Amino acid sequence: MKRFLTLFLLIGTAWGLRAGNVVTDFAAKVASSRVAFRYTYSVNNAVKLQGSGSALVQGDAFYVQGDGLDVYCDGKTRWTVDKTAKEVIVESVDQDFRDYAANPALLVASVGDAFSVQSVAESKFKGKACTAGVLSPKEKMDMSLLKLYFVKNQLAGAAVTMKDGTVTEFVVSDLVFSEVRPAGKEFTFDLGALDNSWVVTDLTD
Asked: Checking CA distances to 91, which of 30, 60, 70, 118 falls within 20 to 30 Å?
């Protein structure tokens, strides 16, 4: 799965925030909620990339739809589905090595654990005054810096800087927090429903 696609789950929220603890409030809210939202992204690199999609996240479980792929994860298994090509890749989720850059939903749910807040200050995002939280990773990953941008008490976007200098910027919309409930079929993919025209690559143990 393309790295730029797998970074999009750095999301925003719309509840009352105080500038001094904007990041910790965000992390706590995400960790205790089911979160749904839409997003657009752009990648600042030699080759310009843009895209959009939607996501549903609850803890380590998520469902992402965007750029021709549907990605399901129940926290233990991840299914990457290309409906046009009729291909599915099935992988185990490594609980000991959490690849946040390749599992953005896990990154969202673990912002408070995976990153250290370096600063919170006034800034600008898309020409609007905002409060920006600057974070650095606690663990080894390809990502070197994460910025979260809050406009009028809601997180309007984010920027991810990779170690190679690539910057991916996200704009978030239509975000809804709801109560956590038992995870259902929305986070899994039924391989048994596929016919023989599909190609399934099973990388699980």
From this structure: 30
